[in-house]
Design brief:
Aminopeptidase, 6 strands
């Protein structure tokens, strides 16, 4: 699904899909219905206190002013959310369900449980993904940039102790799916020993970040 969707998007602009983008991601947010993938996005951690991370192509596209602004706010450990993908059949059959918002909202719930300082994103402006991000609480932190010939905003989501989404459908599904995610972490069906507390779940998320 990732290759089919974004290979086509980038080929339209004369670019090829960079498979190293997929390999560098430490985790993926996936919504499934039975064995079918409804949609997913990818997460990568960058540490703005490390020169090697600042020189990565994703980060090096930011202006020095933006990097200094984030460092000055002690917002140096940032998670990206990239490559939003919703299955075509789900977009077609359930147009009244804002799957992209739900995917983003679940990523923000993941952020709130993680040791990351915030989420950094470069949403496309031509299909108004940037507007969706603003509705969910993102702030623009520098003028748009060009990525693979597409104009993209540069936005930051900050952590929240209690997150609410203005769209009732989005709020309902994010909270329900996140509750299911936590339930599975606490009481897995795979035969593993159940975890004993919500702190254990948070610790696992921290471990996932440490491995990245």
């Amino acid at each position: 699904m990732w290759e089919q969707t974004f290979g086509s998007v980038l080929n339209d602009k004369g670019h090829e899909l960079d498979f190293s983008d997929f390999c560098r991601c430490h985790a993926a947010g996936v919504i499934r219905y039975k064995e079918e993938i409804v949609g997913f996005n990818l997460f990568t951690i960058f540490d703005f206190s490390l020169t090697s991370h600042l020189r990565h192509p994703y980060v090096s596209e930011l202006s020095p002013t933006t990097v200094a602004y984030l460092q000055g706010r002690h917002c140096t450990r940032l998670m990206t959310m990239e490559y939003f993908t919703v299955g075509f059949s789900w977009r077609r059959k359930y147009r009244d369900v804002p799957w992209a918002e739900i995917l983003t909202g679940l990523g923000l719930q993941y952020l709130d449980y993680s040791p990351a300082n915030g989420v950094l994103g470069t949403p496309r402006t031509d299909i108004k993904v940037d507007q969706m991000c603003y509705r969910l609480g993102a702030k623009e932190i520098q003028p748009p940039i060009k990525k693979m010939k597409y104009e993209c905003a540069v936005v930051l989501f900050e952590k929240q102790t209690r997150r609410h989404f203005s769209n009732e459908v989005t709020h309902f599904w994010v909270k329900r799916l996140w509750k299911d995610y936590l339930k599975e972490k606490l009481h897995p069906k795979s035969g593993r020993a159940p975890r004993t507390s919500m702190q254990d779940v948070q610790k696992q998320i921290e471990i996932e970040f440490e491995v990245a």
